[in-house]
TrEMBL record:
Recorded superkingdom: Bacteria
Residues that span the membrane, as ranges: none
Signal peptide: none
Taxonomic placement: Bacteria, Bacillati, Bacillota, Bacilli, Bacillales
UniProt-recorded name of the protein: Aminoglycoside phosphotransferase domain-containing protein
Family: Belongs to the pseudomonas-type ThrB family.
InterPro entries xref list: Aminoglycoside_PTrfase, Kinase-like_dom_sf, Pseudomonas-type_ThrB
Amino acid sequence: MVSDTVKNQVFARLGCQSSEAKLLGGYNQHVFEVNRGEKLVVKIEEESAASEQGVLSECEWLSYMHEHGLRVVRPLRITADTYLNRISEECFFVVYEKVEGAHVSPQDKDVWNHTLFEQWGEMMGKMHTLAKTFQPVHERPQWFANRLFEEDSRSVDPILLEKLQQYHHAFKSLPVSDDHFGLIHGDLHHHNFLRKEDELTLLDFGDSEYHWFAYDIAIAVYHTAQTVPKGSARKEFVHSFFQSFMEGYSRGNPTAVFLSQIDFFIDYRHLFSYIYHSVYADMSQLTDQQRKYLDEMRLSLQKGESYLGFPLE
């Protein structure tokens, strides 16, 4: 969590009052909305959590997508030469345009429907198509350089760490052509886009990395499945969601040749998510329900159960 001292320095640099800043969230409670004549979003980073290279590469990727017509949140330069604004050797901040719109609720059946799922899929497909032509100055990381893999993982069951290594070994046999592998969002669930007047804007590219396109789709399926309780209703919903999502995706990226990999990556996402929360979550701050959910994840993974319990196709 960002200290009050750092927040005050950032807001003073922007000519804003700390008392007027609105916390928007972020895994480390580090994203704020400010108003200095126009509404802006400010993300405050610490070097321990985000590198300068990582932030600049994210901004470059966002700018490229925006220039090519994809609705994404746009980074802004508040000085002429850079997106990155240093407060100290340890801290810096980035400013983004404030996107109008609202998050979509799965309970809002007027919006949470096939039309949305197709649109969501089409935007992901367009993003993957743009990734094939993107030639960055600042490279996003490869999947194996994900900072999670460099963290102290002694709190994680060794059996599950071994399963992670087995997945990574299996990755070596997957094709890495431009039609299979490239720059992905890495976390495009329904909390990471905003909707306004039937238009979606994609947010939060901090997890963007070079990975298999099938994994990006698997992430969307995995997190969407969690909106429906286990059982026949989930199975029916997930199949319907996947069909609509892929109808849209294939319009955005007509060369989708990797459908058989998606089930594999859904189970990988389940393991990755458990390890991520085990490493980064402050267990003392979790609710009883959250601890129970993590325990259920661990037991399911130890048993080697498929997350969905059924194939997508």
